[in-house]
Design a protein that fits this description.
alpha+beta; Dna Ligase, domain 1; six-stranded antiparallel sheet
């Protein structure tokens, strides 16, 4: 077996191949002048991020404003640029490695701060894939990324995050069931390619209407996030699965 690609685009394309997951995947492509123009024409918000790597490094959000202006946010700083070409040139100057472009999801918020969800899916030999942990990562104020360290954000139990959020249109239990179902389907699909993988950490988003999205899949998810919760039972379950493997 050759070396497996860890690119976010490879993972996205593997998931896209499943008809059951298509509606949970925001459109994603390689970053180029053409793809930037096409995405900005179609979506109000666009995310530009490195094709590999983690922790929210290098992620930028472009928001379409009135009169052909585009607001680019990187960390807590933001700039307003005039026209697609000027926006492309600005991004090009910041980008040093291979990048992706993704439709921006309007993530739900808790007290004005956006959040996404980390879902841990693990497998023991001879057993099916199981969700062993799920929590909400809340971005630090003014940040577009939810990486707890980088944005000085925090974690919350998933149920309290949804209940305190701006989500309307689905019950908390329904949304959690959706997150779990989609995460298991995603792990099964990815495991066809990453055949020796026994764990996936899925970053998932919930929009204001309660729809669930897969933002990206991590092959080496940081489990210490679960230590930050007052209830350590999920952390202990994740560790028990690891030992079993």
């Amino acid at each position: 077996m050759g070396k497996k690609s860890k690119s976010k685009l490879t993972k996205h394309n593997l998931l896209r191949a499943s008809s059951a997951l298509g509606s949970a995947l925001p459109r994603t492509a390689r970053f180029s002048k053409q793809s930037l123009h096409a995405f900005l024409d179609q979506y109000k918000k666009v995310i530009v991020k490195p094709a590999t790597g983690s922790g929210g490094a290098g992620v930028m959000l472009i928001t379409r404003k009135a009169k052909g202006r585009y607001r680019v946010q990187r960390g807590p700083a933001h700039y307003t640029l005039r026209g697609k070409l000027e926006t492309y040139r600005y991004l090009r100057r910041k980008i040093t490695t291979s990048y992706l472009i993704q439709r921006g999801i309007s993530l739900a918020r808790v007290n004005g701060a956006l959040f996404d969800v980390r879902v841990m899916v693990q497998k023991r030999s001879g057993s099916p894939w199981a969700v062993t942990g799920i929590l909400a990562k809340v971005a630090g104020r003014g940040y577009i990324i939810t990486n707890v360290k980088r944005s000085k954000g925090r974690v919350l139990p998933i149920r309290s995050a949804i209940q305190r959020s701006s989500i309307r249109g689905a019950s908390t239990s329904t949304i959690i069931a959706r997150l779990r179902r989609i995460a298991i389907l995603a792990a099964k699909r990815l495991a066809r390619y990453y055949t020796s993988q026994k764990v996936f950490g899925l970053d998932m988003g919930i929009d204001a209407s309660g729809r669930v999205w897969i933002i990206e899949a991590n092959l080496h998810p940081d489990i210490t996030l679960f230590l930050k919760l007052a209830d350590k039972s999920m952390y202990n379950r994740i560790c028990a699965y690891r030992r079993h493997v």
